[in-house]
Protein backbone atom coordinates (compact mmCIF):
# COMPACT_ATOMS: atom_id res chain seq x y z
CA UNK A 1 0.00 0.00 0.00
CA UNK A 2 1.42 3.43 -0.89
CA UNK A 3 1.98 5.85 1.95
CA UNK A 4 0.74 9.32 1.13
CA UNK A 5 1.52 12.03 3.68
CA UNK A 6 -0.79 15.06 3.53
CA UNK A 7 -0.42 16.16 7.15
CA UNK A 8 2.49 18.59 6.93
CA UNK A 9 0.95 21.19 9.27
CA UNK A 10 1.14 18.57 12.04
CA UNK A 11 4.76 17.82 11.27
CA UNK A 12 7.02 17.42 8.24
CA UNK A 13 9.43 14.68 7.18
CA UNK A 14 13.10 15.53 7.71
CA UNK A 15 14.89 16.85 4.64
CA UNK A 16 17.64 14.40 3.59
CA UNK A 17 20.22 17.22 3.88
CA UNK A 18 19.11 17.72 7.49
CA UNK A 19 19.41 13.97 8.18
CA UNK A 20 22.99 14.16 6.93
CA UNK A 21 23.98 17.02 9.26
CA UNK A 22 22.30 15.33 12.22
CA UNK A 23 24.66 12.39 11.69
CA UNK A 24 27.70 14.67 11.31
CA UNK A 25 27.15 16.12 14.74
CA UNK A 26 28.80 13.04 16.30
CA UNK A 27 32.07 14.85 15.65
CA UNK A 28 31.01 17.88 17.61
CA UNK A 29 29.82 16.54 20.94
CA UNK A 30 31.13 19.22 23.31
CA UNK A 31 29.05 21.33 25.63
CA UNK A 32 28.89 24.83 24.12
CA UNK A 33 29.42 26.29 27.61
CA UNK A 34 32.73 24.44 28.21
CA UNK A 35 35.87 26.47 27.65
CA UNK A 36 38.11 23.62 26.35
CA UNK A 37 38.55 22.64 22.68
CA UNK A 38 35.47 20.42 22.59
CA UNK A 39 33.34 23.20 24.04
CA UNK A 40 34.81 25.75 21.68
CA UNK A 41 33.98 23.58 18.67
CA UNK A 42 30.43 23.17 19.89
CA UNK A 43 30.09 26.89 20.59
CA UNK A 44 31.36 27.66 17.11
CA UNK A 45 28.65 25.48 15.57
CA UNK A 46 26.03 27.02 17.85
CA UNK A 47 27.13 30.51 16.83
CA UNK A 48 27.09 29.64 13.13
CA UNK A 49 23.55 28.25 13.44
CA UNK A 50 22.40 31.31 15.36
CA UNK A 51 23.97 33.66 12.80
CA UNK A 52 22.26 31.78 9.95
CA UNK A 53 18.82 31.74 11.57
CA UNK A 54 19.11 35.41 12.59
CA UNK A 55 20.09 36.47 9.07
CA UNK A 56 17.27 34.41 7.47
CA UNK A 57 14.75 36.17 9.71
CA UNK A 58 16.18 39.68 9.52
CA UNK A 59 17.22 39.60 13.18
CA UNK A 60 20.39 40.14 15.18
CA UNK A 61 22.09 37.08 16.67
CA UNK A 62 21.41 38.29 20.21
CA UNK A 63 17.71 38.40 19.41
CA UNK A 64 17.40 34.65 18.77
CA UNK A 65 17.08 32.26 21.67
CA UNK A 66 16.81 28.52 21.21
CA UNK A 67 14.09 26.43 22.82
CA UNK A 68 12.59 22.95 22.62
CA UNK A 69 9.98 24.03 20.05
CA UNK A 70 6.92 26.17 19.42
CA UNK A 71 5.13 25.35 22.66
CA UNK A 72 8.09 26.33 24.82
CA UNK A 73 8.71 29.51 22.79
CA UNK A 74 5.10 30.61 23.19
CA UNK A 75 5.16 29.87 26.93
CA UNK A 76 8.48 31.70 27.30
CA UNK A 77 7.15 34.75 25.43
CA UNK A 78 3.80 35.07 27.18
CA UNK A 79 4.85 34.10 30.70
CA UNK A 80 8.14 35.97 30.27
CA UNK A 81 6.48 39.28 29.35
CA UNK A 82 3.81 38.82 32.01
CA UNK A 83 6.31 38.13 34.78
CA UNK A 84 8.51 41.05 33.77
CA UNK A 85 5.39 43.23 33.77
CA UNK A 86 4.33 41.99 37.19
CA UNK A 87 7.78 42.73 38.55
CA UNK A 88 7.69 46.26 37.09
CA UNK A 89 4.30 46.63 38.72
CA UNK A 90 5.76 45.69 42.09
CA UNK A 91 8.27 48.47 41.51
CA UNK A 92 5.34 50.77 40.81
CA UNK A 93 6.32 51.32 37.20
CA UNK A 94 3.37 49.82 35.38
CA UNK A 95 -0.11 48.55 36.02
CA UNK A 96 -1.01 46.65 32.86
CA UNK A 97 -2.78 43.33 33.18
CA UNK A 98 -4.70 42.86 29.93
CA UNK A 99 -3.68 40.47 27.18
CA UNK A 100 -5.40 40.46 23.79
CA UNK A 101 -5.52 37.33 21.68
CA UNK A 102 -7.90 35.38 19.44
CA UNK A 103 -9.93 32.20 20.03
CA UNK A 104 -8.34 30.48 17.02
CA UNK A 105 -4.80 30.41 18.40
CA UNK A 106 -2.99 27.12 18.97
CA UNK A 107 -3.53 25.47 22.35
CA UNK A 108 0.04 26.36 23.30
CA UNK A 109 -1.19 29.96 23.41
CA UNK A 110 -4.71 29.35 24.71
CA UNK A 111 -3.59 27.15 27.62
CA UNK A 112 -0.80 29.57 28.55
CA UNK A 113 -3.33 32.41 28.57
CA UNK A 114 -5.57 30.31 30.81
CA UNK A 115 -2.62 29.95 33.20
CA UNK A 116 -1.93 33.69 33.13
CA UNK A 117 -5.59 34.35 33.83
CA UNK A 118 -5.22 32.28 36.99
CA UNK A 119 -2.31 34.59 37.88
CA UNK A 120 -4.43 37.74 37.52
CA UNK A 121 -4.32 38.54 33.79
CA UNK A 122 -7.47 39.72 32.07
CA UNK A 123 -7.67 37.96 28.70
CA UNK A 124 -9.57 39.60 25.87
CA UNK A 125 -10.41 37.46 22.85
CA UNK A 126 -11.10 39.21 19.57
CA UNK A 127 -14.07 38.02 17.54
CA UNK A 128 -13.45 36.05 14.36
CA UNK A 129 -15.80 36.00 11.40
CA UNK A 130 -17.15 33.05 9.43
CA UNK A 131 -13.89 32.85 7.45
CA UNK A 132 -11.74 32.91 10.60
CA UNK A 133 -10.55 36.51 10.09
CA UNK A 134 -9.91 39.05 12.83
CA UNK A 135 -10.98 42.69 12.67
CA UNK A 136 -8.14 45.20 13.02
CA UNK A 137 -10.55 47.93 14.09
CA UNK A 138 -11.69 45.74 16.93
CA UNK A 139 -8.06 45.12 17.91
CA UNK A 140 -7.47 48.87 17.93
CA UNK A 141 -10.58 49.66 19.92
CA UNK A 142 -10.05 46.94 22.56
CA UNK A 143 -6.60 48.24 23.52
CA UNK A 144 -6.63 50.34 26.66
CA UNK A 145 -3.88 51.80 28.85
CA UNK A 146 -4.12 48.53 30.78
CA UNK A 147 -3.16 46.35 27.77
CA UNK A 148 0.22 44.73 28.28
CA UNK A 149 0.51 42.33 25.38
CA UNK A 150 -1.17 41.06 22.22
CA UNK A 151 -0.55 37.52 20.99
CA UNK A 152 -1.76 36.63 17.50
CA UNK A 153 -0.67 34.00 15.04
CA UNK A 154 0.82 34.58 11.59
CA UNK A 155 -0.80 31.55 9.96
CA UNK A 156 -3.48 29.29 11.36
CA UNK A 157 -2.46 25.64 11.60
CA UNK A 158 -5.94 24.30 10.80
CA UNK A 159 -7.26 26.62 8.10
CA UNK A 160 -3.97 27.90 6.70
CA UNK A 161 -5.37 31.46 7.02
CA UNK A 162 -2.75 34.21 6.95
CA UNK A 163 -3.16 37.24 9.23
CA UNK A 164 -2.15 40.90 8.69
CA UNK A 165 0.72 40.72 11.14
CA UNK A 166 2.44 43.91 10.00
CA UNK A 167 -0.71 45.91 10.63
CA UNK A 168 -1.24 44.21 13.99
CA UNK A 169 2.33 45.17 14.90
CA UNK A 170 1.75 48.78 13.87
CA UNK A 171 -1.33 49.02 16.09
CA UNK A 172 0.61 47.50 18.99
CA UNK A 173 3.45 50.00 18.48
CA UNK A 174 1.01 52.91 18.36
CA UNK A 175 -0.56 51.77 21.63
CA UNK A 176 2.70 50.85 23.35
CA UNK A 177 1.65 47.21 23.67
CA UNK A 178 4.04 44.24 23.39
CA UNK A 179 3.31 41.99 20.42
CA UNK A 180 4.02 38.27 20.35
CA UNK A 181 3.41 36.43 17.10
CA UNK A 182 3.09 32.65 16.88
CA UNK A 183 4.98 32.19 13.62
CA UNK A 184 5.16 28.38 13.84
CA UNK A 185 3.09 27.70 10.70
CA UNK A 186 4.48 30.62 8.72
CA UNK A 187 8.23 30.21 8.98
CA UNK A 188 9.61 28.17 6.09
CA UNK A 189 6.39 28.75 4.12
CA UNK A 190 6.41 32.55 3.93
CA UNK A 191 9.42 34.86 3.61
CA UNK A 192 9.75 36.71 6.90
CA UNK A 193 11.77 39.85 7.54
CA UNK A 194 11.53 40.84 11.18
CA UNK A 195 13.15 44.20 10.38
CA UNK A 196 9.93 45.09 8.57
CA UNK A 197 7.39 43.56 10.95
CA UNK A 198 6.91 45.50 14.18
CA UNK A 199 6.84 42.40 16.36
CA UNK A 200 8.53 42.12 19.76
CA UNK A 201 8.50 38.35 20.10
CA UNK A 202 8.19 35.67 17.42
CA UNK A 203 7.95 31.91 18.01
CA UNK A 204 9.03 29.14 15.63
CA UNK A 205 9.59 25.40 15.53
CA UNK A 206 11.91 23.32 13.32
CA UNK A 207 9.70 20.28 12.76
CA UNK A 208 7.21 22.33 10.75
CA UNK A 209 9.80 23.08 8.05
CA UNK A 210 11.53 19.70 7.54
CA UNK A 211 13.82 20.15 10.54
CA UNK A 212 14.11 17.98 13.65
CA UNK A 213 11.46 17.68 16.35
CA UNK A 214 11.94 19.13 19.83
CA UNK A 215 13.83 22.24 18.78
CA UNK A 216 12.69 25.76 18.01
CA UNK A 217 13.36 29.35 18.76
CA UNK A 218 12.05 32.62 20.03
CA UNK A 219 12.95 36.00 18.57
CA UNK A 220 13.07 38.61 21.32
CA UNK A 221 13.62 42.11 19.95
CA UNK A 222 16.57 43.97 21.41
CA UNK A 223 15.40 45.93 24.44
CA UNK A 224 12.45 43.63 25.24
CA UNK A 225 12.92 41.88 28.57
CA UNK A 226 11.41 38.52 29.42
CA UNK A 227 11.69 36.70 32.73
CA UNK A 228 13.11 33.19 32.05
CA UNK A 229 10.85 30.15 32.35
CA UNK A 230 13.65 27.87 33.56
CA UNK A 231 16.04 28.36 36.39
CA UNK A 232 19.59 27.05 36.05
CA UNK A 233 22.62 27.92 33.95
CA UNK A 234 23.33 31.14 32.11
CA UNK A 235 22.73 29.81 28.59
CA UNK A 236 21.00 31.89 25.94
CA UNK A 237 21.97 35.16 27.61
CA UNK A 238 20.30 34.03 30.83
CA UNK A 239 16.94 33.77 29.14
CA UNK A 240 16.77 29.99 28.76
CA UNK A 241 18.72 27.79 31.16
CA UNK A 242 19.80 24.34 29.98
CA UNK A 243 22.42 22.92 27.62
CA UNK A 244 21.43 23.74 24.05
CA UNK A 245 20.20 20.99 21.72
CA UNK A 246 23.15 21.55 19.42
CA UNK A 247 22.42 18.89 16.80
CA UNK A 248 18.78 19.98 16.64
CA UNK A 249 19.72 23.65 16.34
CA UNK A 250 22.22 22.89 13.60
CA UNK A 251 19.57 20.80 11.81
CA UNK A 252 17.05 23.64 12.19
CA UNK A 253 19.44 26.15 10.60
CA UNK A 254 20.07 23.83 7.65
CA UNK A 255 16.34 23.10 7.27
CA UNK A 256 15.48 26.80 7.20
CA UNK A 257 18.22 27.53 4.69
CA UNK A 258 16.83 24.80 2.41
CA UNK A 259 13.27 26.08 2.70
CA UNK A 260 14.21 29.63 1.84
CA UNK A 261 16.51 28.71 -1.03
CA UNK A 262 13.72 28.12 -3.57
CA UNK A 263 10.75 29.27 -1.52
CA UNK A 264 8.80 30.99 -4.32
CA UNK A 265 9.25 28.10 -6.79
CA UNK A 266 8.46 25.52 -4.11
CA UNK A 267 5.34 27.45 -3.07
CA UNK A 268 4.15 27.66 -6.69
CA UNK A 269 4.61 23.90 -7.01
CA UNK A 270 2.82 23.16 -3.71
CA UNK A 271 0.01 25.53 -4.69
CA UNK A 272 -0.51 23.72 -7.99
CA UNK A 273 -0.84 20.39 -6.16
CA UNK A 274 -3.11 21.84 -3.47
CA UNK A 275 -5.37 23.46 -6.06
CA UNK A 276 -5.56 20.29 -8.12
CA UNK A 277 -6.54 18.35 -5.00
CA UNK A 278 -9.06 20.93 -3.81
CA UNK A 279 -10.65 21.56 -7.20
CA UNK A 280 -10.71 17.83 -7.92
CA UNK A 281 -12.54 17.05 -4.68
CA UNK A 282 -14.99 19.95 -5.09
CA UNK A 283 -15.83 18.91 -8.65
CA UNK A 284 -16.20 15.20 -7.89
CA UNK A 285 -18.22 15.37 -4.67
CA UNK A 286 -21.30 17.43 -3.78
CA UNK A 287 -21.68 19.04 -0.38
CA UNK A 288 -17.99 19.87 0.15
CA UNK A 289 -17.02 23.37 1.33
CA UNK A 290 -13.62 24.94 1.94
CA UNK A 291 -13.22 26.36 5.46
CA UNK A 292 -11.26 29.56 5.97
CA UNK A 293 -10.17 32.60 4.03
CA UNK A 294 -9.65 31.38 0.47
CA UNK A 295 -8.11 34.64 -0.69
CA UNK A 296 -5.48 34.73 2.00
CA UNK A 297 -4.05 31.41 3.05
CA UNK A 298 -0.94 29.26 2.96
CA UNK A 299 -0.39 27.57 -0.38
CA UNK A 300 -0.14 24.13 1.20
CA UNK A 301 -3.41 23.86 3.14
CA UNK A 302 -6.99 22.99 2.30
CA UNK A 303 -9.50 22.48 5.09
CA UNK A 304 -12.70 20.88 3.87
CA UNK A 305 -16.10 20.36 5.36
CA UNK A 306 -17.75 17.28 3.90
CA UNK A 307 -21.47 17.29 4.58
CA UNK A 308 -22.92 14.14 6.08
CA UNK A 309 -19.56 12.64 7.07
CA UNK A 310 -17.71 12.48 10.37
CA UNK A 311 -14.16 13.82 9.99
CA UNK A 312 -12.61 11.22 12.32
CA UNK A 313 -14.26 8.37 10.44
CA UNK A 314 -13.08 9.87 7.18
CA UNK A 315 -9.54 10.19 8.55
CA UNK A 316 -9.54 6.53 9.64
CA UNK A 317 -10.85 5.39 6.24
CA UNK A 318 -8.17 7.39 4.45
CA UNK A 319 -5.58 5.94 6.82
CA UNK A 320 -6.69 2.43 5.86
CA UNK A 321 -5.79 3.39 2.28
CA UNK A 322 -2.41 4.76 3.39
CA UNK A 323 -3.35 8.45 3.29
CA UNK A 324 -2.44 10.61 6.31
CA UNK A 325 -4.53 13.74 6.99
CA UNK A 326 -5.89 15.53 10.08
CA UNK A 327 -9.31 16.11 11.56
CA UNK A 328 -10.56 17.97 14.61
CA UNK A 329 -8.13 19.95 16.73
CA UNK A 330 -5.43 19.06 14.28
CA UNK A 331 -2.17 19.01 16.23
CA UNK A 332 -3.60 16.87 18.99
CA UNK A 333 -4.34 13.77 16.98
CA UNK A 334 -6.54 11.40 18.89
CA UNK A 335 -8.69 14.32 20.00
CA UNK A 336 -12.36 13.70 19.32
CA UNK A 337 -13.45 17.22 20.20
CA UNK A 338 -14.68 19.46 17.42
CA UNK A 339 -12.08 22.03 16.44
CA UNK A 340 -12.13 25.15 18.65
CA UNK A 341 -11.14 27.13 15.54
CA UNK A 342 -14.22 26.07 13.57
CA UNK A 343 -16.51 26.58 16.57
CA UNK A 344 -15.12 30.11 17.02
CA UNK A 345 -15.96 30.79 13.35
CA UNK A 346 -19.59 29.95 14.04
CA UNK A 347 -19.79 26.40 12.69
CA UNK A 348 -21.94 24.14 14.82
CA UNK A 349 -20.30 21.05 16.43
CA UNK A 350 -21.70 18.73 13.74
CA UNK A 351 -20.31 20.89 10.92
CA UNK A 352 -17.00 21.23 12.74
CA UNK A 353 -16.74 17.48 13.15
CA UNK A 354 -17.40 16.98 9.44
CA UNK A 355 -14.13 18.70 8.56
CA UNK A 356 -10.77 17.43 7.47
CA UNK A 357 -7.41 19.08 6.70
CA UNK A 358 -4.98 18.26 3.91
CA UNK A 359 -1.59 19.97 4.23
CA UNK A 360 1.05 19.37 1.57
CA UNK A 361 4.77 19.94 1.20
CA UNK A 362 7.32 20.18 -1.59
CA UNK A 363 8.02 16.47 -1.15
CA UNK A 364 4.54 15.52 -2.35
CA UNK A 365 4.06 14.55 -5.99
CA UNK A 366 1.20 14.86 -8.44
CA UNK A 367 0.61 11.08 -8.53
CA UNK A 368 -0.27 11.24 -4.83
CA UNK A 369 -2.91 13.88 -5.53
CA UNK A 370 -4.28 11.72 -8.37
CA UNK A 371 -4.40 8.71 -6.07
CA UNK A 372 -6.32 10.63 -3.39
CA UNK A 373 -8.71 11.95 -6.02
CA UNK A 374 -9.48 8.32 -6.88
CA UNK A 375 -9.83 7.09 -3.29
CA UNK A 376 -11.63 10.04 -1.70
CA UNK A 377 -14.93 10.00 -3.66
CA UNK A 378 -15.25 6.23 -3.12
CA UNK A 379 -14.85 6.64 0.64
CA UNK A 380 -17.34 9.51 0.77
CA UNK A 381 -19.91 7.53 -1.21
CA UNK A 382 -19.50 4.58 1.16
CA UNK A 383 -19.72 6.73 4.29
CA UNK A 384 -22.77 8.59 3.05
CA UNK A 385 -24.38 5.20 2.35
N1 LIG B 1 1.69 26.99 17.18
C1 LIG B 1 1.17 26.50 16.04
C2 LIG B 1 0.42 27.41 15.12
C3 LIG B 1 1.34 25.15 15.71
O1 LIG B 1 0.82 24.67 14.59
C4 LIG B 1 2.07 24.33 16.60
C5 LIG B 1 2.26 22.90 16.27
O2 LIG B 1 1.50 22.06 16.46
C6 LIG B 1 2.60 24.89 17.78
C7 LIG B 1 2.38 26.22 18.02
C8 LIG B 1 3.39 24.06 18.75
O3 LIG B 1 4.66 23.79 18.25
P1 LIG B 1 5.53 22.54 18.79
O4 LIG B 1 4.88 21.32 18.26
O5 LIG B 1 6.89 22.77 18.23
O6 LIG B 1 5.52 22.62 20.27
Pairing-aware structural class of the strands and helices?
A: alpha/beta
Total count of helical runs of at least 4 residues: 13
Bound molecules: pyridoxal-5'-phosphate
Contiguous uncertain segments of 5+ residues: none
Strand content: 5-15%
Rg over alpha carbons: 21 Å
How would you characterize the largest beta sheet? 7 strands, mixed
Helix residue percentage: 40-55%
Sequence of secondary-structure elements: EHHEHEHEHEHEEEHHHEEHEEHHEH
What's the total count of β strands? 13
Strand order of the largest sheet: 2-8-7-6-5-3-4
Give the terminus-to-terminus CA distance. 25 Å
| Average of pLDDT | 94
Shape: globular
Describe the model.
- The structure is a single chain.
- Helices cover 42% and strands 14% of the residues.
- The chain has helices at 16-24, 37-57, 70-90, 107-118, 136-142, 165-175, 235-238, 246-261, 263-284, 311-320, 340-344, 349-353, 366-384; strands at 4-5, 64-67, 98-101, 122-125, 147-153, 178-182, 201-205, 216-220, 288-290, 301-306, 323-324, 326-327, 355-359.
- A seven-stranded mixed sheet has the order 2-8-7-6-5-3-4, sandwiched between helices.
- The two termini are 25 Å apart.
- The mean pLDDT is 94.
- Bound molecules: pyridoxal-5'-phosphate.
Amino acid sequence: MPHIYFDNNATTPLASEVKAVLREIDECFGNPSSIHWAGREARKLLNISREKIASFLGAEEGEILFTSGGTESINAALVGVWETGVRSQELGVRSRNQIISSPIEHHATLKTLEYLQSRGAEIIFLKVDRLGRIDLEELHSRMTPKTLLASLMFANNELGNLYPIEKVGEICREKGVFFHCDGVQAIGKVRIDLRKIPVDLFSFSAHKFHGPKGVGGLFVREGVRIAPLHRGGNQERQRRAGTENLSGINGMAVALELCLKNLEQDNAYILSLRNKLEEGILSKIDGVYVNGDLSNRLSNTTHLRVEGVDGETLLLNLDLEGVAVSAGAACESGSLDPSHVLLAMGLNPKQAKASIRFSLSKYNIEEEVDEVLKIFPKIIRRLRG
